[in-house]
Amino acid sequence: MDANAVKHIASLARLEISEEEAEEFSKEFSEVLEMFNRIDGIECEGEMVLPFGVEPSLRDDTPSGEKRNAGYVKGPKTV
Amino acid sequence: MIIDFWKDHDSGKFWERLERINKRFHYLNTVVKGEISGFPFSAKDLIVTKGVETTASSEILRGWVPGYDATAVKRMKEHGTLIGKNNCDAWGFGSFNLNTSFPVPRNPWDEERVTGGSSGGSAGLVAALEEPTISIATSTGGSIENPSSFCGTVGFVPTYGAVPRYGLISYSDSLDKIGVIAMTVEDAEFGFNIMRGPDKRDMTAIHIEEKARRVKKIGIVKEFLDVDPKIRDRFEDVVESLPYEAVEISLENTFKYGLVSYYIIAMAEASTNLARYCGLRYGRKGEVEGRNFNEYFSGIRSLFGKEAKRRIMLGTFVRSAGYRSRYYKKAACIRRMIVEEYRRAFKEADILLHPTMPTVAPKFSEIEKITPAKSYMMDILTVGPNLSGIPHGSVPIQKSGLPFGMTVNGRWKEDLTVLEFMKEVEAVACG
Description:
The complex is a heterodimer. Chain A has helices at 3-12, 19-36, and strands at residues 68-69, 72-73. The radius of gyration of chain A is 22 Å and the shape is elongated. By secondary structure, chain A is mostly helical. Chain A has a two-stranded antiparallel ribbon with strand order 1-2. By secondary structure, chain B is α/β, with parallel strands linked by helices. Chain B is globular, with a radius of gyration of 20 Å. An 11-stranded mixed sheet of chain B has the order 1-3-2-4-6-5-10-11-9-7-8, sandwiched between helices.
């Protein structure tokens, strides 16, 4: 990842970085991404966001009955 | 037990010692001096405390005094007294507690060495004090186990969600856990039992199994034995002294891909979580005059330390269009593989054991020039149980000279089984 790419990401992340920092991060990120690339080509299916066994519960005051449908909750009209 | 010790203990000398230790070793960012009722506990500075400055050890939050307590702190205050906020790697980002805006804490056994991180101030303080205390700490990828191994403390990381996270400054929501650091397993269990249980303010907070299981078979994770030979020898001695049938377990995918999967997920989540620090709602404010929103926002965010900037940028990159599938989605998919690998392993054994860290605490001079990628590799043995969300804890198995620990892992929600087993390891190793 070159210094220009680092500056682009920094602007996406709303971070101010100096030319010097961009050069330094560029070297470091290249090594980190080389490490990340170890997972290239791994075959696997289905992402997991929360670890196994956790079923988020909803608060007691969450709307029930007709305001609940297919896992969604109908909220109040705001506009 | 901690509560009995403090029943009739004079706290005058305690404060004297604590202040002397803190001046030299830098374990607390803020000291809250006062009368001790019940027992003393500290909280990592990543956990919100009412009326006490909470900085996450970062410059950007300096001066922020929250108006509420985290659930874990609130529950602990019903039995004990908050004595201070522990130094840590800013936002929990680090394995050596070097990434702090406060003076870097030093290992209580050798000042030339690190405490480990990110809960370095927690483990350091607990180990350095003569009197028993408890620290509320957090682990995302090893932040309780790592400093516990390096400082010779007991560190317990509960099942994901067993202790509510309301009031914990988020690093990576799908991985963050609140746990305990103490000098004995009994004290760690005591602290955990106070803090655990559902909370209406945290929808991921859960109940755990209320009874410990009778352990029949233990599993030794073969890929996790490539460590310092002294650690490996002592680990094997302790395993041999335990009165259980031991089987060899393979966690090959966890060993090969766990570290990468962990860092991609943790950085991706951190980059979104840290977007809230923009100089409007919390902590330090900047000069508004003559600057548009983006300029103001970016200017304040330059107060982030180097490691925070690294993680925000790498996290933004792995989520960005064109790279999301290659990195973030793949890492989340590997996480499923790892969780399934642990589930298979627990069909063969009730408890899984391995050394906590590959080395003893390194010297500051040894890690001065280490690159970020190399420092991330220190977490090779701790990321697996953290990605899986299983309960696990580190028990010191070498207390003389430089300490190191053994990690005890159990099935999801079997926290009490893990704690019971940790007591057995403690009795064998240090009894």
